[in-house]
Amino acid sequence: MLYFKGIDFCSSITRGKFEEIDMELFEECMETVDKCLTDSKMGKGSVRDVVLVGGSSRISKVQELLQDLFDGKDLCKSINPDEAVPYGASVQAAMLSEGIKNVPDLVLLGVTPLSLGILTKGDVMSVVIPRNTRIPVRKTQVCCNLDNQKRVPFSVYEGERARANDNNLLGSFVLSGLPPSPRGHPLDVSFAIDVNGILSVSTEEKTSGNKNEITIINDKDRLSTEEIGRLIQEAEKYRAEDKKFLRKANAMNSLGYYVYKMRNVLKKDISSLCSKEREKIDYAITKATNLLDDSKYQYEVEVFEDHHKELASFFESIASKIG
Amino acid sequence: MMSYPFSLPSSHTHYSIINNMATVASACLPSYIIKKPLGFHPSNLHNKCFSKSNASTSTLSCKASSSSSMVDFDLYDLLGIDNSCDQSQVKVAYRSLQKRCHPDIAGPAGHDMAIILNDAYAILSDPNARLAYDKEQAKSSEFKGFTGRPIYSVWCGSESEQRAIFVDEIKCVGCLKCALLAEKTFAVESVYGRARVVAQWADSPNKIDEAIESCPVNCISVVERSNLAALEFLMSKQPRGNVRVGAGHTAGARVSNIFVDVEKFQTRFQEAMEKANKCSKETDLQRESRMSAIQAIRSISNWLYWQTPRTSSSSSKSEKGMTRVVYKLPEPDISKLRDAVARKKVRDRTRTKRQTPLNCIHPEEYWTPSTHALPSSTRSTTTPTPLEKPSVTTTGQKKTNETYENQNSPIRWGLPMVTALTAVVTVQIHAVESTRELQQHVAGSLALQIVNSSWLQCTLAAATWYMIGMAITELVAIIGNRNR
């Protein structure tokens, strides 16, 4: 019976009609179960019991689909679906409390719902803690600065996309007071998640001892369950596009690094080169720099890769002369 | 990725190392980002974008895990398991430890312990990572006990001297000549009776040269000082027999083997040291917290391991505990299900009670028309017998209408019984009132007997009106179905 705009509505509906209307929702539930098994790297055979929890599990079509998904395995219906959740919450509360006896011998192991990482050169999401990592967890990653960079911004993101700005920004901070150093000077970035889901991101420069840190608590700027599911689905949808973006970003970064190395080598000893070769090298380096700086996202990845090969073959012929 | 052909100055050596790591990991990451996981779990193993083959993954994992394992601890020892156990045992060990180390159980003190357990389990539960870790463990074990300094001999020569004296103890026959000629430099060890250098250049070069020449099997040689430590370390691991008993000597190829092995050993050790240096980059505070957490995990692991010898009692207890846990979950639900069943039974009784009045009402309403039938029967007393039947038929029709109006659906066995009983009562009343008997009947002797016998009249009337009631009931049912 429905109550809509002050009108009581009551009608009968056949089982077949009901299942026909809701089949999309049922199939979505089955996809969620299948994805859960995939994420945890478990086969259907390694599932010991299928426990039905929640009022919707009473729908006979849902039970039928679940049984088919697990190859005819009998479903465990001895647990009241309406009471399973508060029962589990009570057990967890007992475990967290002191002085309570007869607590079941079990522990709740949480995982991170989304990957966590930082923004790196080329708008690339550099994952530090991948999805479904057990918490508590602590990981450290080394990243590099640019030439004579005195302050380095750090942006913390969560999500599954390869491009950082497509993910959810959690927070950002700046590490300043860096000593002048050439490109590639290492900086340590540490991610730590405690058992309550609180994320701490800290960074440190070893020589000067400069540090900075940011703490992101669970309820601030975090995503809800629906948004997490949406992000994961979007990552699946745009997987091909993300792969293409990553390939291009890697090509650009490797080309930029190669140009940087060539410049440093050429600063030292070029007396053995004739002026023609010198002009060729300068022209190639200038062309590569223009490729990288101007209209960054208009060229295809093949342009950067081809230019990288051109530079490499060019430099190989010169390297023998430099000795 | 292409390797950069130009040579870098020595001050940039670590950049080259970083660059190589970036090259390995750069299939899906920009080349400026190098993964250096705290502990022993490279994130790339689970990165979906990582498109390198298993060999590359193994290589990367080797690099990452070796630095941790050499500096810190053995993952198998940490979990309290043997390195040959299967995946299910790894999982059981991890879960049993996590039940005691998890912050939900152990409080804030368990934070670091849980982190390390998660890292250890992440490596040992992944077959590829575990294989790489096992390979690295095999490599590291050959360096156990190696300090970089000679084991037996002390240096008594000048600092500028770059040569050292080394005895191949496998070839030594224990003739004691070198020990007698240069008694400060050489000595005979007591276990197997073979010669050994105990003090480098303690005697004069002439005496040492004389001792070397006096050796009947040429097992004394002059080696590079930088190789002395490795040679003595490798020699200490060589199996040998007691020379007194006359055990067989190793073939001459042994000499070349050990001198070739020392070069490989030095190379591998250099690589391992470089990896160890990388690990030292982490913060001192982090290392201290990690070491204390590791010690705590080890103590718990030892405690669990110590409990294991009581296999029968402890396993039975754990089984009982698990059984109790299993029983505890459904117990409340079963009792509540029983309550629900009891409630359903109560409802069934209520329905039964409700149904009973319906049964009671029907006979009363069915008996009501019989009072109306009596006056019409009384009036027709003076009329002949054939005239009485039509009046009874009219009464039956009235009953049918009343039944249909009062009850939506007739009770099939009720109506025929009512009509039959009514007919019997009517016939009885009529029989009592009429005393005379007929002498003749048009139908014959049979009809005459029926008319004259009162019980035959009742039986015939009951049967006839029962059939009529049945027909009326079916007719009403058909009409009702059509209306629906």
Automatic annotation (TrEMBL), chain A:
GO cellular component entries: cytoplasm
Signal peptide extent: none
GO terms of molecular function: ATP binding; ATP hydrolysis activity; ATP-dependent protein folding chaperone; heat shock protein binding; protein folding chaperone
Protein name (record): Uncharacterized protein
Family assignment from sequence similarity: Belongs to the heat shock protein 70 family.
GO biological process, one term: protein refolding
Keyword annotations of the record: ATP-binding, Nucleotide-binding
ATP-binding recorded as keyword: yes
Cross-referenced InterPro entries: ATPase_NBD, HSP70_C_sf, HSP70_peptide-bd_sf, Hsp_70_fam
Pfam families: HSP70
TrEMBL record, chain B:
Residue ranges, annotated region (Disordered): 369-408
Domain J stretches: 74-137
SMART domains linked to this entry: DnaJ
Protein name, per record: J domain-containing protein
Compositional bias annotation for Low complexity: 375-386
Compositional bias (Polar residues): 391-408
One Pfam family linked to the record: Fer4_13
Annotated source species: Glycine max (Soybean)
